[in-house]
Specification:
Blueprint (H helix, E strand, L loop, with lengths): L11 E4 L2 E6 L2 E4 L1 H8 L1 H11 L1 H26 L13 H13 L2 E13 L4 E11 L2 E10 L9 H18 L5 E8 L4 E6 L2 H21 L2
Parallel strand pairs: 6-7
Antiparallel strand pairs: 1-2, 2-3, 4-5, 5-6, 7-8
Helix pairs in contact: 1-6, 2-3, 3-4, 5-6
């Protein structure tokens, strides 16, 4: 097994049907592309309900908010100086300050914003963080949201986390203890959810991969 430092960057490209990574001269889908395929019908229904332009405005705001927040969290966890970036009352700074207490529960970081892939699954992606959370090794996903979601609506987040847990084990032989999502809403409310039943989510991931591949084959 290789060490985490030997997990190399992969060439990537974003197409209309999702994000793909080049693995052994084959373009494989990203974790988010495969999982996102499951929610495509729901997204289209939501877009129809609110209107295309309003949906685009919400998507752009969500993307901007998430990217800025992730960048700040990554710098903080890398022990870079973020004090000058968190002054004032901007939304990103507010979200970070709201989350800081829970971010401080993260120690012994193995990977942060790092590539992972699986030759068994022919899948790839980037993990937000793989570290100890409250002293247990975890795949940790950072989320921003307009308002907090019911725990049962977070299931696909844990499917995503389970993919990275699987990939990490494939590369290192190290099994993570749990899957963690840390969500912060625009009002500053926090939601930390932890799951230990990784096998349940890996099985769901395998179902998603099968359905995605059948869909792609049906379109060819």
């Amino acid at each position: 097994m290789g060490s985490p430092k030997e997990i190399c960057e992969l060439e990537s490209r974003t197409l209309e049907r999702g994000r793909f990574y080049k693995l052994d001269d084959v373009w494989v889908p990203s974790v988010t592309t495969v999982i996102g395929h499951q929610s495509k019908a729901g997204i289209l229904e939501w877009q129809k309900r609110v209107g295309f332009h309003e949906a685009e405005k919400i998507r752009m705001k969500s993307s901007w908010r998430g990217t800025k927040y992730h960048n700040l969290v990554e710098k903080y966890l890398r022990n870079e100086d973020v004090e000058n970036r968190t002054e004032g009352e901007g939304l990103t700074s507010y979200l970070f300050r709201s989350a800081r207490k829970d971010l401080d529960r993260i120690t012994n970081i193995h990977l942060i914003e790092a590539p992972l892939f699986s030759r068994n699954l022919y899948l790839a992606g980037r993990v937000d963080c793989l570290a100890e959370f409250d002293g247990e090794l975890a795949v940790i996903d950072f989320k921003t949201t307009r308002e907090l979601k019911k725990p049962e609506w977070l299931e696909n987040y844990f499917v995503q986390c389970s993919a990275y847990a699987y990939m990490y084990y494939e590369h290192t032989g190290i099994e993570v203890d749990k899957l963690v999502t840390i969500s912060v809403s625009e009002s500053g409310e926090m939601q930390v959810e932890q799951r230990y039943d990784k096998e349940k989510y890996v099985n769901k991931l395998l179902d998603y991969i099968k359905e995605y591949r059948e869909y792609i084959e049906s379109r060819q």
